[in-house]
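Saturday, quiet lab. Running sequence design on the structure tokens for the scaffold JK sent over.
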């Protein structure tokens, strides 16, 4: 399967089979960056799919088949972005309680570069539904991203009802203080890249306390580590040496062959 194509359960997907995904929009996914046929944190991606399938559908996912389907999408030594989406094509709004039969949709797209300019983000109060699940329900996150971009920012950073920062729409937030890596303590999805970079220190970070931190960055599987220049009017050092160390550590990860 070439980049930009899609398969459902290992065969070309038919448009009618995507109706439930488009109209009911109930399911979960993970996105992997494939570099030279390898995926950083492949085991974490597969475990995410297993856990989320249990949470949303109450059934075990055959990870061997998932890996087989995903492997079909990658030419030998290929580099691309690969997304695995799990949903039930038979589900509809009127019949959500039946026994689920999740299917595996594999889609690909070209991989962009990882050398990107620092982000300028706007903080907004928002908590995703089931934040611990990487669900396909992205409306709220994308609405806030669009609103932030229309206001001149690059993206949105979410805060919870207590004013603590949590995550971006498709990325985790990391902070540096005194050379130490800090992850926010809040309800959010622990990303695979975040977990690969190490545990660091976890603490509640109120939005008003951000000036106490030296640097901030976003992490996801597509870009690894991307500096954040500002959150609202708070500025950070996008050239902080710890950010360069983290980016280099991520780049050195060998990955696992699909």
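Result came back. Writing it out in full:
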């Amino acid at each position: 399967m070439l980049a930009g194509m899609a398969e459902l359960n290992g065969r070309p997907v038919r448009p009618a089979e995507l109706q439930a995904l488009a109209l009911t929009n109930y399911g979960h996914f993970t996105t992997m960056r494939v570099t030279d046929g390898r995926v950083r944190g492949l085991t974490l991606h597969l475990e995410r799919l297993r856990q989320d399938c249990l949470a949303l559908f109450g059934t075990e996912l055959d990870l061997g088949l998932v890996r087989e389907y995903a492997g079909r999408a990658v030419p030998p030594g290929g580099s691309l972005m690969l997304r695995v989406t799990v949903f039930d094509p038979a589900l509809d709004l009127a019949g959500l309680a039946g026994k689920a039969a999740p299917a595996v949709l594999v889609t690909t797209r070209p991989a962009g570069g990882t050398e990107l300019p620092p982000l300028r983000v706007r903080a907004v109060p928002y908590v995703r539904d089931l934040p611990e699940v990487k669900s396909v329900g992205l409306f709220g996150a994308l609405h806030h991203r669009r609103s932030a971009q229309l206001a001149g920012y690059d993206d949105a950073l979410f805060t919870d009802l207590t004013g603590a920062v949590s995550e971006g729409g498709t990325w985790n937030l990391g902070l540096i203080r005194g050379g130490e890596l800090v992850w926010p303590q809040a309800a959010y999805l622990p990303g695979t890249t975040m977990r690969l970079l190490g545990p660091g220190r976890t603490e509640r970070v109120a939005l008003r306390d951000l000036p106490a931190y030296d640097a901030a960055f976003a992490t996801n599987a597509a870009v690894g580590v991307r500096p954040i220049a500002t959150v609202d009017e708070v500025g950070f050092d996008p050239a902080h040496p710890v950010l360069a160390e983290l980016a280099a550590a991520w780049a050195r990860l060998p990955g696992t062959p699909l």
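Notes for JK: The chain has a mean pLDDT of 95. DSSP finds six helices and 16 strands in the chain. Ask whether to fix the surface positions before the next round.
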